[in-house]
Structures are given as structure tokens and as C-alpha cells.
Amino acid sequence: MNITTLVKCLAVCGILFALSFATAPTPSYHEGFQTVDSDTAIRLLTEGNSRFVAGESIHPHEAFSWRANLENEQHPWAVLLTCSDSRVPPELIFDQGFGDLFVIRVAGNIVDTDVIASIEYAVDYLDTQLVVVMGHTHCGAVTAAVDSEKHASHDPVEITSLVHRIQPAVNFVEGEDRNETIKRSVVNNVALSVKRLKEVADLQRALEQRDVKIVGSMYDMHTGIVTFDENQ
Ligand SMILES: [Zn+2]
């Protein structure tokens, strides 16, 4: 082989090599997906919250290509039941993006039939392994339950119903300083929601037969830090 033939051969090989990359299929979201176990999910949430607290959020999974991969499927790796409060946005607090969290927000992060159904959907159909109930400091819904005797007669029946769901969490700590009562009631209210979820037959099965976990947590509005309580 003379030098001219060798140069031509290398040029052709180079073009073929480049073409092989240009035509290689892009891996789909599903091909790259692996079930995230509950311990890993807690670690990912903790790491994301640490970035948020440090002011180093990376805002992952927002690009057009990522969202395009999600058009026909989703595999969220954590369910978040938290308050509707505008100061408690889960994706920002945990520095997560599209498709990561299955979020249910309702004032006072209470548990009712529709909330249970939404969580069951994520656990049973989307194979999400971690369910987190997240309360927060200065919760207006819990404060309303603490002050319910002042407002009960003026509130619409639906608000009264919601406050009644929180009331058992307040009853534990009545008679103490008001601010302390609110703080402790917020913690009790998370524990109450965790307990109610663990009593749901379908979720009980998931806890016993699979790696599913239901845990409580608390978001401190001042520091931005979320603490988990896996013993609830
Ligand atoms: Zn709240």
C-alpha cells in the first residue's frame, strides 16, 4: 500500500467512525431508569437539601431534552406529602427537577381519601419506594387548629373539616405556651399523618412485602434545613 492509498483509507475510516456516532440512538429515559431504593432516595433528598441550604442548587432535570424524555413516562423516586404553603416548594427545597418527585400538597399535609389514593398510585403503579410526609415551621393550618375555638364559628364547613383532621395533633400539647404548642403540634401533625398512612391496608402491604418506607420530616423555614425522622 502506497502513502496515497493509506491516506485515503484513513480518511474513509474517519468518516465512517464519525457517522457511527452521528447515527447512534440516544438512550431513552426508560433505558437509563433504575428503581431507586428508599435509603438512596433519602440520601438524594438530603444531598439536594444540603445544596439548597448552601446556596449551591444545581436545578437538575430542567433541560428540554430531559423533559422530552418524560413525555410518555415518569419514574419519580420519592413521594412528598407536604403543605400547600407558598413558602414550602419541595422541588426547590430538595433541589430536584422534572420527573423526580411525586408531590401531593394540601394545607396542613393532612391525610384524606384522595391523598391516600394519590400516594397509592405512585407506590403501586410508578414503583416509588419512599413516601415522605413533610411538615414545616410556622404552619398556618396547624396554627388554625391551635386557635380553632376563636375561628370555628366563622369558617366555611370545609375549612372546619380540615382543621378537625389536625386537631388530634394539638390535643396532645394543650395548656402550654402558645408558640410552644404550635411548634409541638406541627411535629405531632406529621407523626399523625405518617401513622394514618401506615394504617392503610394497601400501603401496609407495600411496607411489609417491599422496600417501601414512609417517613416523617420537618422543614425549618428559617434555616432551610429538612430533618428526617425514620422512627415515626
Ligand atoms: Zn403549613
UniProtKB/TrEMBL annotation:
The keyword Protein biosynthesis does not apply. Keywords: Lyase, Metal-binding, Signal, Zinc. GO terms for biological process: carbon utilization. It is an enzyme of class 4 (lyase). PROSITE patterns: PROK_CO2_ANHYDRASE_1 (PS00704), PROK_CO2_ANHYDRASE_2 (PS00705). It comes from the Bacteria. Binds 1 zinc ion per subunit. One of its GO terms (molecular function) is carbonate dehydratase activity. Its EC number is 4.2.1.1. Pfam families: Pro_CA. Zn(2+) binds at residues 83, 85, 136, 139. This is Carbonic anhydrase. It comes from Rhodopirellula sallentina SM41. The lineage of its organism: Bacteria, Pseudomonadati, Planctomycetota, Planctomycetia, Pirellulales.
